[in-house]
Amino acid sequence: MKKIAMKALALSVCTICMLSFTACSKNSDGSASTPGEVSGDAVKITVWDVYGPGKGMDKAVEAFNSSHSDIAVTEEYITDQAEMMQKIQVAAASSGENMPDVALTDMINSPLINEIVELVDLSTYLETDEKLPAEDFYENLLQYGQVDGKQISIPGYVNNMILYYNKELFENAGLDPEQPPKTWDELVSYAQKLTTDKVIGYMPSCLIDTYYEATSWQYQIFVWQCGGEMWDRSQNFKPMFNSPEGIEAMQFLHDLIYKYKVSTVTPPENAFPTEQLAMIMEGTWMGGDYLAALEDKLGAAPLPYNKEPATNTGGEQWCIISSDQVKEDAAWEFISYMENDEEALSTIFSSGYVPARKSLAESDFVLSLAETSPAIRASLDSLPSSKMRIASPKYNAASEASAGYLQQVLYDKISVEEGVQLAAEEFESVLNGN
Predict the structure, then answer these.
(1) The pLDDT of residue 87
(2) 311-320 and 386-387 strand pairing
(3) Quick one: pLDDT at residue 98?
(4) What would the DSSP string read from start to end of 211-248?
(5) Is there a contact between 356 and 137 (Cβ–Cβ < 8 Å)?
(6) Once rounded to an integer, what is the mean pLDDT over residues 253-277?
(7) Given pLDDT bands bounded at 50, 70 and 90, which one contains residue 417?
(8) How far is residue 202's CA from residue 191's CA, in Å, rounded to a whole number?
(9) Which helix (H) or strand (E) holds 430?
(10) Worst-scoring range by mean pLDDT, 193-207, 250-264, 342-356?
(11) With the C-alpha atoms ordered 313, 274, 351, 382, is the resulting torsion angle positive or negative?
(12) Residues near 126 by Cβ (< 8 Å), separated by ≥ 6?
């Protein structure tokens, strides 16, 4: 380990998951190894990730090891996101012992990991790897991993927020199921027609999931759709959402509940898959579950907007922890493989993720997957209007501190103006240590 930032223990716990899997490889004579056995000459690297057997990561690692006799990848599992960050902090405090070589981390955690350990600048790899050139990534997704002039991470697989809707409920309300709402006005009109004593017209999922980041993440979308900005990215991420656009966005969310009465803060459990909710703003990761529940009744589309189309893009970023050149090169070889192998990608994408690269998003391979998945199709259509959160190691703490005020507005405890003002003040206080 070239450098370990010992301030690790002072950092707060954030979100990442990982997984344990001891993969197969081939011996130097070409014979197959049993699980856990690796060639003595192979470069051994450890990968922590957020996927696992359910999303095909185990099979992908096994396939990589089988086709690379000179590299042996071991995948490890950690039960939840917070525990992974804790283990990284502990490893950093013990001079890097048991530190992974590669982390596939929730994007908001890559800046935090960069504060804990030294991450490899991936710029040179992007310049020299013809299979993974920088210009192929969607620019805003690649920019997220750029910190202090370094490319500390690159996008792995991304997800975003889209509109899911029930086609049968549309038909029952006299609406065309192939023409979902495209604007806020249409969204309200459709929702009013869909609302009955048994069906809720529309809900952003932050009214169901009270986790602070659900509120923050979704509020950001509504601000951008009003033509506003959340932060001044040139001024240390100074909050800008205490603005007419920020207030308009929060007012619309409040009005959905209390003026138009098409949403509620007390929905029944599993309202959308049980057909008690006609439309929901939710992440692409729910596409598989919704498709299984609703089958051909499921529709999906980019989010309706006010002045500008926008969605919020999340997902994972690849990081390489600094060690030695041989291990770093092997780590990049693995990342490049994972970004290009169709068998690995097909399982990951079918669980609600889409590519961060233009050529892959436009490929026959991905487009064929989209034909059977409304969520993938809607997510791909949303990528050109995707926006990102800020790449700050203090983002999580600032989001948690400010989201409570926005939630108080949604529960009609404080006014829209007061909630937005207090949220902006709290966000800046935490972010900049005031």
Answers:
(1) 84
(2) parallel
(3) 86
(4) -HHHHHHHHHHHHHHTT--SEETTTTTEE--SSHHHHH
(5) yes
(6) 97
(7) very high
(8) 6
(9) helix 416-432
(10) 342-356
(11) negative
(12) 132, 133, 134, 151, 154
Q: Which residues pair with 327 in a beta bridge?
A: none
Residue 32 DSSP symbol: B
CA angle at 155 for the pair 152 and 156, rounded to the nearest 5°: 120
- Residues 226 and 426: their CA atoms lie apart, in Å, by 22
pLDDT tens-digit readout, 117-130: 999 999 999 999 99
Determine contact, residues 185/246, Cβ cutoff 8 Å: no
Q: Per-residue pLDDT tens for 40-60?
A: 689 999 999 877 666 777 888
Phi, psi of 107 (to 5 degrees): -55, -35
Q: Is 275 left (phi over 0), alpha (psi -120 to 50) or beta?
A: left
Residues 6+ apart with CB under 8 A from 319: 102, 103, 104, 105, 110, 113, 114, 119, 120, 152, 153
Q: Are 21 and 61 in contact (CB under 8 A)?
A: yes
Residue with tokens 């009013």: 192
Answer yes or no: are the C-beta atoms of 243 and 166 closer than 8 Å. no
Q: In the structure encoding, which two tokens stand for residue 124, read together?
A: 């040179």
Q: How far is the C-alpha of 297 from the C-alpha of 150, rounded, in Å? A: 46
Percentage of the residues of the chain whose pLDDT score is greater than 90:
65
Backbone angles phi, psi at 186, to 5 degrees: -65, -40
pLDDT at position 79: 66
b/e per residue, 353-376, with b = 16+ CB within 10 A?
A: bbbbbeebbeeeebeebbeebbbb
Q: What integer pLDDT is reported at residue 15 of this predicted model?
A: 35
- With a cut of 90, say whether residue 268 has pLDDT above it: yes
Q: If we measure between CA atoms, which residue out of 301, 281, 288, 298 comes closest to residue 200?
A: 281
